[in-house]
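Person: Please work through this fold.
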Amino acid sequence: MNEEVYTKDEARHLKVGIYTAMILALISGIYVVNKDSMAHKESGKYYTVDARFNRTDGLLVGDQVRLAGVDIGRVVGAKLDEHFKAILTLDIKENVKIPDDSSASIVSSGLMGKKYIEIEPGGSMDYIPQGGEFSYTQDAMVLEELMDRIISIGKANRKAENK
């Protein structure tokens, strides 16, 4: 039976190496998780606007706000109003002025992708002010509901063909 035994000095060096690797992994993890929010706050000034939705399935605080596919802000808050609708608070880059007849929709980047808010600009010459609210919003589409709709359309088409 040949057992390898570390000396006290080797065991101490091994422990220090393991602890150092764990600390570096922890610091790297924290950096990766927080880099988007750090970049968001450091990259300029923002103004806040609200958007009211019936449902926000899968959208989280910290997710992106985009206009024409370009990142213009982040979701920074979420709360319920007295009628149980979700009010999302959005930080929008100060240099991006959004017409007051624009709409905000919750969409995803692909079939199972991450959710974000897409702004469809209106044609008004007036803009949503600091602390203002979108007049038009479109809720998140839930995958199960979409599948149910597709199946019911297919069933209706099959019945029409059988007649």
Remarks:
- The longest helix spans residues 8-42.
